[in-house]
Amino acid sequence: MADKNRTDRLVQIILLLMIASGISVMIFLNISAGDSGKGSSKSSAYGGGRPSSAQGTERPSSTEGQRPTENQRPANSQRPSDSSARSENAVAVETYKVKITDVNQYIKINGDVTVETSVEIYSDTNGKLVSRKISLGDSIEKGEIIASVDPSLPGQNYSASTVRSTISGTVIELPLQVGDKVTTSSPIATIGDLDDLVIMTYIPERFVSTLKKGLTASVTFDAFPGENFKAAIIEINPVMDANTRTLSVKLKLMKRDSRIRPGMFSTMKLITRESLNTLGIPSQALFSYYGDSAVYVIDENGLARRRIVSTGLSSDEQIEILDGIREGELVITQGQNKLTDGTQVRTVDLEARQ
């Protein structure tokens, strides 16, 4: 009887425990359900939850609330394109459009304008210059009286001796004044032909081998900036000056210009070699690449491409190109020091120089 009572009590305890556990589980589930309901209500209040069918609201379209695609992004928020990024990183350069031209090799020298034909006029007797009938710049004819010389000595009276010009031309020098003593070896005047002007210059020894009659020169004068005059070699001294190691050369102006006068200083480019109708580029476009001559050209993609070239004649301004580039291509003249083969470039000049 005691064992049965003990068993019944144990069963009752177990039942109580099971009831207590069930109650606890229900309470937990109710609490969880309440929290979930609150969260749904809160989401609905802020418009972010999914509305129920009972509320009668429309279901948002598939695009609402989603991350916009590349095509849907506003224009001001688009990612920069690859081409614009490359353009911003491109190296700024200057270019020259290769064309057919003439390339000259020349010597840069200076010279003085003088008359080709000039004659000094002398008196036949010694004495004193008593009169002078000409002035500097006067044009005179052959046989015209230009001065008188009195050969009288103390205690002796002689008639004045006239002095006549031996050529026609222009008075370019009058070394004596009236009253000066005159001898048969002192010139009274110098008469020159201003229609026959030449330029005297002196060529250094290292260039003598390139000289020959007929070589042309481009002549400029400080008095006429921006103007060029043509001259050609007409005479080469066969003897070199041992002191200066130079050779005197005479050039004749091809066209008479009344503005050019004897005594004017000139600067000349004496052309020693010339290549006509050839490809030429500015000298600054060329650089040395491991002992070879090279240039950078711009390809159709805007990339700098290194080209090895063969050169011909050269001057301070231009270089003749025999092989390596073609007419019409763009060569880079400024900015090469920032480039390697394949560098993206952009031109800073408005258009390729013609």
Q: Features of this protein?
A:
354 residues, Elongation Factor Tu (Ef-tu), domain 3, six-stranded antiparallel beta barrel, four-stranded antiparallel beta sheet, 2 helices, 22 strands, rod-shaped
Strand content: 35-45%
**Mean of residue pLDDT?**
82
Number of discrete helical segments: 2
Q: What's the CATH topology name of the domain at 107-113 and 195-275? A: Elongation Factor Tu (Ef-tu), domain 3
Order of SSEs = HHEEEEEEEEEEEEEEEEEEEEEE
Shape: rod-shaped
Task: Give the % helix.
Answer: 10-25%
Distance between the termini: 128 Å
Structural class: mainly beta
- Uncertain parts: 36-78, 350-354
CATH homologous superfamily heading of the domain at 107-113 and 195-275: Efflux pump adaptor protein, beta barrel domain
* Radius of gyration (Å): 52 Å
Tally of extended strands?
22
* Corresponding CATH architecture of the domain at 107-113 and 195-275: Beta Barrel
Strands of the widest sheet, in order across it, are 2-11-14-13-12-15
**Biggest sheet statistics:** 6 strands, antiparallel, barrel
CATH class identity of the domain at 107-113 and 195-275: Mainly Beta
